[in-house]
Amino acid sequence: MYEIQSLLHAELLCGEEYLQNEVYSACCSDMMSDVLAYVKDQGVLLTGLINPQVIRTASMMDMICVVFVRDKAPTEEMVELARECGIVVMCSPMRAYEACGHLYYSGLRGNAGDKHV
Amino acid sequence: MRVTNMSEAIRFHFDVDGENFSSAGEASVMVKKKLRQLGFSPDVMRRVSIAMYEGEINMVIHAHGGTADVIVGEDAIEIILADKGPGIPDINKAMQEGFSTASDNIRALGFGAGMGLPNMKKYTDYMQIDTEIGVGTTITMRVNY
Fold this sequence. Notes:
The complex is a heterodimer.
Chain A: H1 2-7, E1 11-14, E2 26-28, H2 32-38, E3 44-47, H3 52-60, E4 65-68, H4 76-85, E5 88-91, H5 96-105
Chain B: E1 2-5, E2 10-17, H1 26-37, H2 42-63, E3 65-72, E4 76-83, H3 91-94, H4 104-107, H5 116-123, E5 126-132, E6 136-144
Antiparallel strand pairs in B: 1-2, 2-3, 3-4, 4-6, 5-6
Helix pairs in contact in B: 1-2, 2-5
């Protein structure tokens, strides 16, 4: 995940101890309902939504990293919740489309082996 | 949270606060943690916690909260979500993917895509909805393991 942080010029808010872990796919949504319904085995969630349910949703889906785009700043309560859940949280100045583009271009795909990428 | 440990099952009981959206989902996070401590497989943990999380969010959005009970039985985990909300007028409609009565306000919070109930059914092995208009709704789900 070091590469994600560097590609997205992101600030790390918590989970430094997990940064060496590898991730193989990602998804991007502001609708947590859709994340719960459609996501399968993606390790990273990119979103512009700020509320504790973002972290809880990521935790339910066994995701290990949440990137807040457009410099959206999560609350201290959210960061604390992420710490408890063992989730890396980053904040990127990029817009969602741009951030996704950088990650996709660098090899982080939507859903490895799935035709509905 | 109240934990009761009977000879045949472990039961977790939660009161789900309907007035405070920011706490919605807390019980499900707690249940996932407990199931991990009990040594359940990632698949079972994920299915139980997603189904419960969707239900918990629904209770907060539509029914001013309620209660959630999780019973770890011998071969299945049962989740019982009970509320005293308005009830579901048309269950068939509510089970359709994309059908939602949630307000724009709820959508702005990232929920209300009309995937909650279908998702709960998808992730569980059994789901029953008992609902009465003006009285409330009880949803019973089971995940076998």
